Amino acid sequence: MFVIACVCVAVIRFGFAGDGVVIDPETYYPVTYVVDGDTFKVKVESGNTKGGGGGSEADAHIITVRVLGINTPETVDPRKSVECYGPEASVEAKDLLNGRKVKLTFNPNRELKDKYGRYLAYVYRDDGLFYNEVMIKEGYAREYTYGSAYSMQGEFRDIEATAQKSKAGLWSACGASTKK
Fold it and tell me: How far apart are the C-alpha atoms of 18 and 55, rounded to whole Å?
C-alpha cells in the first residue's frame, strides 16, 4: 500500500506519464513554440532534474502543454473559424511566452493529460508571472472547466467576473460572442 501511495505522489508531483518524460515542478523549461493562447510547447530533457540542463539533445522531448483552467478564442482549429479576440490572445501569448522559461504545475485532482495527449498545467513564467491568471485577468481568456473541477476553479471564476465587469479584452471587443 505504501509503495502505491508513493508512486501516485510521484506521478502527480513530477508529471511522469509513462512516455519517458518526467516534469520536475521546480524546473523551468524553455518554451519552443506558442500554438495559440492556451497551448504551447516546451523542451523537457529526460535526464534533467534541476536547472534546465544535464541531458543530451537525444534525451530531449518536446511536449505540448494545454493551459489548465483557461480557454482562449480559437485561431488554429481547422474545424472552426477564427473567433473574436483569438488573434489578440495569440499575440499576447507569444509576447508573454516566446523566449521564456516556464514552470509547469499539475493539479492533483485532475488527469495529467487531456484526450489529445497535451499536459494540463498551471504555468509560471521564470519571473514569477502566473500565466493562467494573467490571461483571464486581462480578458484574453475565459475560465474553462472541462470535466471535473480543478484546484483554482473558484479563483479563476472570480478573476473572470472582475474582467467581465471591467470589460477587459474580449469582454468589450466581442459582446455576446463571449459565451462559453
Answer: 18
26 in active site: no
Chain length of the chain: 180
Candidates 45, 74, 143, 160; catalytic one: 74
Contacts of 81 (CB under 8 A, 6+ apart): 74
Burial category of 57 from C-beta neighbours within 10 Å (exposed 0-12, middle 13-18, buried 19 and up): exposed
Based on the residue annotation, tell me whether 125 is a catalytic residue of this protein. Answer: no
Range of the domain at 13: 2-174
Q: What is the pLDDT of residues 81-97, one digit of tens each?
A: 999 999 999 999 999 99
Q: What is the pTM of this model?
A: 0.84
Is 66 labeled as catalytic in the residue annotation? Answer: yes
Query: 45, 66, 92, 100: which is the annotated catalytic residue?
Result: 66
Question: Of the residues 45, 100, 110, 118, which is catalytic?
Answer: 118
CA distances from 10 to 22, 23, 31, 106, 179 (A): 10, 10, 24, 12, 38
For residues 68-98, b (16+ Cβ closer than 10 Å) or e, as one string? bbbbbbbbeeeeeeebbbbebbbebbbebbe
In a domain, 164, yes or no: yes
| pLDDT tens sequence across 136-165 | 999 999 999 988 899 999 999 999 999 999
In a domain, 179, yes or no: no
Question: Total structural domains in the chain?
Answer: 1
